[in-house]
Amino acid sequence: MNNLLISKMQRPCVSYMTNIPDALAIKVEQVTDLPHALQHLGLQESRPTLVIVGGASGLTQEYYTCLQRLFEEKIVPLAEKFQAYVVDGGTDAGVMQLMGKARSNLGGTFPLIGVAAIGTLILPDIENTFADAAPLEPNHTHFVLVPGNNWGDESPWIADVATALANGAPSVTVLINGGGITLRDASNSMRVDRPLIVVAGSGRTADRIVAALRGEVSDEQVIQVAKFEKLTAVELEDDFHSIGEAIAHKLSSK
Predict the structure, then answer these.
(1) Residue 117 is inside which H or E element, if any?
(2) What count of Cα atoms within 13 Å lies in the side-chain half-sphere of residue 203?
(3) Mean pLDDT of all residues belonging to the chain
(4) How far apart are CA 114 and CA 201, in angstroms?
């Protein structure tokens, strides 16, 4: 398909040119519209669902290089094995960029869905005065564009889109590195009762959550995430075996 399809619920679909020629997108205004919107994108089948949250612009080169291996050696092969839906923030930075590049490099066929607040994006022919606006990651297959003008406005939507996609199938959120918004992402996974895997040793928010498990952090929001009964902390090993094992277990169990 040569166009990015943006449609508002209860309005006719309109085509919109983009520099991502093979992606489909839909704009939604209300959470209750999600099942119909996803069906409109051809994503109506219930599947295991993997949510990726974490570092964007704050990833150092050292972490980026290490995490590139993690995505290519474990995360993307597992998504392909389970033919899972993969959901992230959809912009061309950090873990979202790593996910898109790894899927492309390995010839992945699983759906990769970016969920992004429309006011934070650089889109063709749409003027945006948001100073930190970002482009969409070009290797994603689908986008759900949601209301919002600030980073983090997409956070509850990521959780709700993943729930609608899984539709009863197993799902898990993997938290890697990250800043303040990543804590919000973790809280939203807790809200929908989605298991949360925190990659210890990946830096910043992930490591703060793990430190809270040891009683070494006083930040109440971090402590609340650490108390989540469905949280699993997994070390960033050189062979990534434990991370892969934890993800596979969650995607294959009810």
Answers:
(1) strand 112-117
(2) 17
(3) 91
(4) 25
By DSSP bridging, strand 142-146 and strand 171-176 are unpaired
Mean pLDDT of 35-60: 93
- In this prediction, residue 126 carries a pLDDT of 77
Look up residue 139 and give its two tokens: 């290797």
Among residues 67, 68, 143, 77, which one has the least CA distance to residue 107? 77
Q: How far apart are CA 68 and CA 13, in angstroms?
A: 37
Q: How far apart are CA 43 and CA 190, in angstroms?
A: 24
The pLDDT score that the predictor gives to residue 245 is: 97
CA distances from 207 to 5, 59, 124, 133, 213 (A): 39, 13, 38, 27, 10
Q: What is the maximal distance between C-alpha atoms in the chain?
A: 54
Q: Any idea which of 18-22, 159-163, 238-242 has the lowest mean pLDDT?
A: 18-22
Rounded Cα–Cα distance for residues 151 and 41 (Å)? 24
Provide the pairing of β-strand 85-88 with 4-6.
unpaired
pLDDT digits (tens, 9 = 90+) for 54-105: 998 888 888 999 999 999 999 999 999 999 999 999 999 999 999 999 999 9
Fold for 4-251, please state it: Rossmann fold (3.40.50)
Closest CA to 47 of 109, 103, 139: 109
